[in-house]
Each structure stands twice: as C-alpha cells, then as structure tokens.
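Hi,

I'm pasting everything inline rather than attaching a file, because the server keeps stripping attachments. The sequence lines come first, and each chain or strand is labelled.
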Amino acid sequence: MSRPSKRSGSKERLEARGVAVAFGGIRALSGVDLEVRRGEILGLIGPNGAGKTTMVNVLSGFQRPTSGSIRLDGIDVSRLTARKIAQAGIGRSFQAARLFRTMTVEQNLSVAAIGSGQSRRDARERALDILDWMGLAAKADHRCDSLSYGDERRVGIARALALQPSFALLDEPASGMNDAECEALMEVIAELPARFGCGVLLIEHNMKVIMGVCQRIHVLDGGQSLAEGSPQDIRMNPAVRRAYLGEKAADSTLAI
Amino acid sequence: MKSNAMPSLASIGRFWLPVLALVVPLVLIVVVTGQFGGLSLQRTVVEMLISIVIVVGLYVFVGNSGIISFGHATFMAIAAYGSAWQTCCEMLKPITMSGLPHFLRDQSIPLLPSAIVSVLLAGAAAFLTGLVIMRLTGLAASIATLAVLFILNVVYSNWDSVTMGSASIVGLPTYVTAWLALGCAVLAIVVAYLYQISAFGLAIRATREDEVAAAASGISLYWSRLIAFTLSGFLVGLGGVLQAHYLGTVSINNFFLGFTFLALAMLIVGGMGSLAGAVVGVVVITAMVDIFRRLEGGISIGGQQWSLPAGTQELIIAAFMLLILVFRKDGIMAGREIALPQQPQREKGLING
Amino acid sequence: MANIVQVLVDAIALGSLYALVALAIGLVFGVMRLVNFAQADYITIGAYALVVPTASVTPPLLLGALPAAVMIGGVLLVVVVLALLTERVAFRPLRNSNPSTLLISSFAVSYFLQNLVMLIHTGRPKSVGIGQSLANAVEIGGVRVPGVQLLTMVVTAGLLVALVLFLKRTPLGVQMRAAAENFQMARLLGMPANRVIALAFAISGLLSGAVSLLLTIQTGTLDLRMGLMPVVYGFFATVIGGMGSLPGAALGGFLVGVASVLLQTYLPADLRPFRDAGVFTLVILILLVRPQGLIVTSAAKERV
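And the predicted assembly:
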C-alpha cells in the first residue's frame, strides 16, 4: 500500500506554473506558481477570497486555467478533465464533504478505488483498510446520511485517499471540527506522506493545524502568491501578518 | 490476512436477502392465484410479472442514474416489433408487411432464437441511442429521451410497409405463461441486483448522488450511464417480447406516452431509489389498476348495479402518484432495499449481551 | 420567388407560434426549474372551453358563442386560472424538489388533466367553427397569406413585444429575468418567490391561452392531444435555446418551427410523414454539438 517516499525524484511533483483564472472580469488567480513534492505536506493559506479553493479546483481539473499550466510529474495535465486527473493520481476532498449520501461509508471509499481502476472486491478491501487506519471501521456499513458532521468530513478525506493518489488536495478538512477532532485529524494528515507515499496540499484556516503538520507553507492573497517558506518563516513574515491581521496588528506579538 | 475460504451460509443468505425478499412473495402469488384465482386474476398476475420485467429494466437506468427517461418504451417497441417480424403470421406477412427483407418476410424464425435476437436488438438500439444522449446531463438528457420516443413513434406509425403503420399486428404466437413471466421477472431482478452491487453499479449510483464528487473520484459519468442505459435497454426489450407474445398483438400506440406514464408511475410510487421500490411499485399500481378497472366495469352492491365512469382509474393513478411525490417523495420503499439491520450494531449487541 | 416567400411566411408563422410556447415553458422553468408537461393541457383545455361538454363531434359552443372580445378574454381567463391552480395544488408543495421530481410531477399533472378532459368531453375529436372569416387569404405584394397566419404573426409579435417590455421595464419582470439567469442567487437575494412564481405561471397561462385560440382557428378541430405537439416542440426549443435563457427559448422556438416547415416543403412526398422525426433528430444533433444549448446561462452550469 505504501510507496517509498524517502527521496523525492526531480519529477515527483505537482506544479502550477503561472496559473491565472478570470471569471468574467474578476481575476481569481493571477500568475501563481506553486509546487507540491511527493512526501511533503504543503500548506496553502490566505484570507477569504485569496483564491485557495480556485487553486484546488484548477489542480484537480474542475476549473480550466485562463492561462498557465499544471504539470504532474513533469507532464502537462492542464487540458485533462477532472475525471482523468483523478485517475492520473490527484485526489481531492471538498469543503462541503459532498459524500454520496445514500451509500454506505465503505461504498463511498470504494467508488474512488473503482475510479482508480480496481475491481469491486479489491476496492472494498482497500476501503476497509483505510477506514480501519482512520478509526472509522465501525462505521463502514453506515449510510452516509446518518453520520455526524465530524465523521462526514473524515469520510470525505478517506474517500480522496481511496483513490490512492500521488497527491491529495484537502480543502479545509478541519473546518467545523472541535479541538479533539482537530488533534486526531492532524495525526492522520501528518502520517499521509509516509503511509500513502503521496504529497499533500492542505488548505486550512486553523493555524494550529497548518503550523503543526506542514513542512512548507504557501500564502495567497488577492489571487497572488504572497510568500512561501517554512512555518517559522511564514510566522515571522511581516507581509503575511499584514495580510492576515491588517496593518494595525502587523507588529503585534500575536501568534498566527 | 483476508480469508478466501467458503463464505458461510449466513453471509450468502445476507447477500441474497434483498432478492429473496422480492422473489419469494412473487412465487407465492403465482402459486396461490394459479390454484385458487379466477381467470381474470391470473391474467392480472401475468401482466404484473411482465410489468416487473419492464419497470425493473427502467429502474436499472432511471433508479441508478437519477435521470428520468421517457424513452424506454422505444426499446420495448423495437424488441416487440422485432419479434413480430420474425414470428408473426407467416401467411399474411408478405401482404401486410411487404417491405420486410426476404429472410423475414417469407419465413418464420423459431421462438427462442427470435426472442433472443429481439432482446439483443433492443439492447443495441439502447446502446446506440445512449452513445449520443448520455453526453447530455440531467434535464437535457431527459428531454432528449423524450425526443427518442417521439422519433420512434413517428417512424413506426408511418413506416406502413414494415410496421403496418398505426394498425395492430395481430396473430403473434402467445406462448407466455405465468411461470415463464415469473422466470423472466426473477431473471430481471437478479440481473438488476448483481448490477447495482457491482463496480459499475456503485459508480453510477455515485454519479446520481453527486456528479462533481464522482468525477473527483475518477468515475466517468458518460460510460457509467451508457452501461446502465444499455443494460436497461436489454431488460425492457425482454419485457417488450414478453408483452407481445402474451397479448398476441403489437401496436405502436401501446408504446407511447400512456404506457410511459404508467411505467414511470410504478417506479416513482414504489421509489426509484431501490430495486425493492421498483417491484413494490409495480405490485401496488397493478393492484390499483385492477381494482378500478373492475369498478369501472360495474359491480353489484346489494342487488344494485353500480360503476365508476371510464377514465376514473387514470385520474386516480395520476393523483396517487402526485400525493406520493408530495408526501413521500422517495416512494413507498424510500430508496431502501429489504435487508437485515446493519451488521456492526448486531455484533456490538452480541458482545454486550 | 413568390413560392419561397410563401414558405417563409409559413415558417415564420409556425416559428413564432412555437416561440410563444417555448417562452411559456421557459418562464416557468426560469423561476422554479420546472419543465412543465401540463403546458400541453393548458392549451387543450383552453380550446375545449370554447364548447359545451357533450359526446357530440359537433358540440354546441360555450365560450365560443360569445362576442369575440369576451370569448378571447374568457379563454385566457380559464387558462390562467388553470395554470395558477396547478401551481398552487401540485407544484408549490414540490417547490424545493430537484428538477427531475418536478418534471415527473408535471407529467402526472398532465396525465391527470388529459384524462379529466376525456372524462368530461369524451375522447373523440370535435370540430368547432370560430373565426371562419379569418380563413380568407389576404394578398400582400403578390403573396397570398392566409388570414389565420397573418393573425398568428401579428398576435405573437404583439405578445413577444409586450413580454419583452414587461421583462425589461417592470420590477417584477426584472426579478423574473434575474431568476431565470441565476436561480440560486435570485433566491438568496430575496426574490419574493410566491409572487414571482405565480406570475410566471399566470403569464405562461396567458400565452398558452393565446396558443389555444390560434390553434383552434387554424385547424377548426379539438383534440385531446392538440396541445401535445406544440409543447413537445416547445421543450426541444427551450433545450436547444439553452435552458434558463428566455431569448434562447424564443430563438429555439423559431428554429424548430422553421425547420419543421422547411422539411415539410422540401422533403420528398413519401418522406413527409416523417417530418417530425427529422426535426427531433436535428434537435438531438444540435445538443450533441452544443450540449448546453445555443445560449448558455449560469443555470446550465454547476459550480464546484
């Protein structure tokens, strides 16, 4: 199940190059460069409306970039449909979990495994494996419309993993979770690279989660890259502090 | 370690329960009405079983994909006419259907091969139609299936030398018995069940729930729908052949909006989200139609002859369907199969108990 | 030359009739995502309101016996009330259902109404003579235009203009357009749903009533399914025009009407009965090339 992930080859990366997206006259993204390597967790942060979700939509094929390109392991995938991109190994979760509501938890995961080309039997095995690992085994045969909010979100992440992606894009997985749930989620996310051999792009508003699990952080503001670096760098970066906290708070000692 | 040993009897039972729960009552109905029922009740039962083949066929696409199809009567008609061309009225065919190719016009083809060919024809027609229509999504796809229904109706109503236009073709061999209809109904149910729990079935149900999330899970909306559409074309084709050889006549007017309405009403009333819903819907609507048909025919209460005006039955069915849509929009079965309670809870119960 | 002009006149007359029907469908679709099969029965019932319910094939006139203006007003009123009634009884309780459920429920309403008419008037086609004076042709610049077609064109043009003015100039009309363009947004912004939806039904009833009268004058017959073909054409028109786009619906209506007349004129005689099949095939082909229709609105796209 797990692939070797110690050393990222030069090609083992998901890159956005000069990506711009315009809706009518509004520029959601303008010329963003971004790179996720296999085996690392990259945080993508920024104020509301910074273009984070648009970036995930572009990377996962749901939004065609107005200009720029997306490369997966060095190959241009900008023109592929969302389905083809998923099959090429980019899994994603959604802000609203978007589960297949009348289906069971196991079936939700199996759909993604089937989408990646597995037989029904293998898909079920993979699904149960992941659920077991995430501590959701007891819920495997529950219908998704009977799940608690926290479980719904975790199943959404699990489903993205069932695709056995080489890159997992997680869109605000912790939103609405309580502290205990957040802690558990951080453990899961932190383990993803080692267990699945994948790279992770993590969008999250909860700074504790971001600072806790990311090796690198990329900051978007107003559709443009503002900064990139280690959690330590980003924490200290004055431009980031300004964007987040407004001019006034820029020199306050508040930890973000 | 995953055990590949023989599955236990209990797990086989659990696996087949949703099918058995539908099939066993149907067998009982056939046995009991065969022993004790009058002729008209027996006819109703056969019609019900044929409807089950058709509605389960319709369910394979509509239920699993969530896309309403108005076009399935097309594939029934194609199979029914296909079978009529092969088996009907050898003496009259050269005159009434002079436009048929020689190998059909001048001879009859044995029943079994002709039935198989007709069903294949329906499936092929569904596949070809699906190739085009499944590119569309949602409502546009539904309306395109309506276009297909109208195209077939216009063509078959006017293609006089082959279909006898809007006249009925009569004199098809009537070989359909209650047991044959039951066999086909069971076959349809088993096929639909195995399909819906297969990888293809799971994939298309995912597209029904959420097209975006399905695409993000690597599922092709187009192919999964095309497979369902084709399979359901085969099944309604089987229904078409059965109906043709039960009634002994084929008429294009029986494959138009009235029929489409009744089939959809059955599916909706039972609940289009589950196989059990499709079957239950057929049973309920068939019973209603039968009761009101009798009332329209006239009954005597206390020596007084009393009857409902003709057409009441249609009004009541339509009103009933609307009531279901308003007050129980997922139908009688609410999208669920007949199954035992979920396993994990049971296990927990055992441990705690 | 004159022949071509004649064909053109035919094409425009039928096209504008279908455009009316398509607009009636498109308006209701715009405000509640309902593709309304019962539109066919609005047309049928409007026409049947002209006669007294009997089993006779030449029934005595009811509304049809009244002076022209009262007759027109009466038919329009009947259809508007009917449209509002179906909205209130059948569609309002389903307002938050998905479009497939709405579609199927309108199918049930249509089936109900059709059988109700059958119960009241019997299923036999009937002949009814109103507006016979309009059958005479009028000669305009060497082209003989049947009065009925002239009337159809004038009425539809008038209604189209009135509708456009209403949609552009009145607050309710603007809200209705906004709803059609972006349904979710309009609801979020507090579109007064009950009022706008009822109004859309009333207008669609009004347009359907006009179609009832025009069809009856054209054909001189009543039939249970007389509304069916125009509405099916209207469906296809709204789909190829782009669901949710009102200009698209009108454009689609013209296109299918024109295509129908052209096929009727230029197909070899023995293929003419297949004309409708030809038009519907064309519809599917257009959808293949432009699955979202000719005019794409946000209604047709889903956001992630």
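The radius of gyration of chain C is 19 Å.

If the labels don't parse on your end, tell me and I'll reformat.
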